[in-house]
Predict the structure.
Amino acid sequence: MEKASKIFRDLLQSNEMHSCTFSAPREKTNVIKSIHAKSVSNLNELKVEFRHQKHNDIKTILKSEFITKDLPKLLQAYKQLLIKSDSIEYQVLFNKKLVGKIIEKKSDIAHVSKGNRTKNYLIPDNIPCPFLIEIGVMEPSGKVKPNFYKKFKQINRFLELVDNLYTKHDGSPQHIIDFGCGKSYLTFAIYHYFKNVLKTQVKITGIDIKEEVIDHCNQLASKLNFSHLNFVHGQIHNFQTDQPIDFVITLHACDIATDDAILFSLKNNATQMMFVPCCQHELNQQLHNENSSAMLKHGILKDRLTAIITDSMRAQLLEIADYKVQCMEFIDLEHTAKNILLRCSKRNSQPVMNKEDNINKYLQFKNEWSINPYLEQKMKSLNYFSI
Ligand SMILES: C[S@@+](CC[C@H](N)C(=O)[O-])C[C@H]1O[C@@H](n2cnc3c(N)ncnc32)[C@H](O)[C@@H]1O
């Protein structure tokens, strides 16, 4: 069993696993007859189908969670396991003593895998997409320009996460805000996805401090007939609206711009947020910890540590403000080093029970690193918590 488990973990962690199926339940009373899990392109997640006699339940599970929680139980509960990677297929047959016989053969998906991956993108390569052509990411033929491939992958990755959020929760958001939208590749992509692919009405507002970029984006939106997409020139911390906001995003908004986006979301009671932070300077000069001086001595290590401490601080403060927070990898490190995504959902029905406890843990954390973050100061002044 240990060997099968290792093959599974290695393939999953190296993103080589295409799909797997657990079948032949050991107990006849087991109502789940088989379980089929499929990697979602570029995601840290698996789409898992629990196949009952007459219906299937589908869940999205983090790969890391699947490995630690589900895998050990499933290996005990099912007699057969089929693991497919792009190149090899492993069939594992477990006997009564849970010893697995592993049969290895060449995978039948190897020759189509590359093409399939491309087709799996929510906005595919090689199919002309008017907005991507207009913003210069695609050739009129539909081919993504080589210089824009990283951006194209980032856009698709973000769309997958948005899709995942809203297909899970049924329905679509009413009003999305994209702070620090820049040239707005992502903003246009999300609008296109809701309007043209999902055929649902959505309003999106992009905000940025670069006036000429905002003017250009507004012209492009009107050329594309994207009538509920508009762009506003200004600072995030000055932006106000009296319309309800349900979803706030930032992709690589610099330094405390992410914190301003968080503060706006709290004030406006946003139900969902996704932040991929960028350069994190604020805490860099504050960090001090006698016991961890080795990590603070070298610039590069200190920069990375600062980023991790900043995102940990944000996650804790958001939890204190009654959001459920998941920190996950946004996209492979080969595409950008800025690859941590904070996905936050408002806990409407179940506010955090142990708020005091969360506040105490946060205080301990901030004291340990001698930090006094902008986000905390602002949240206190807005009475999200008191110390
Ligand atoms: C690295 S770019 C990212 C642009 C875009 N989100 C993307 O991923 O392609 C960061 C953008 O945030 C904008 N920005 C930074 N701080 C801001 C602030 N306080 N208010 C509004 N925009 C801000 C910058 O002008 C810049 O366009």
Q: What stands out?
A: The chain has twelve helices and 14 strands. The longest helix spans residues 299-320. The CA atoms of residues 88 and 102 lie 12 Å apart. The chain has a mean pLDDT of 88.
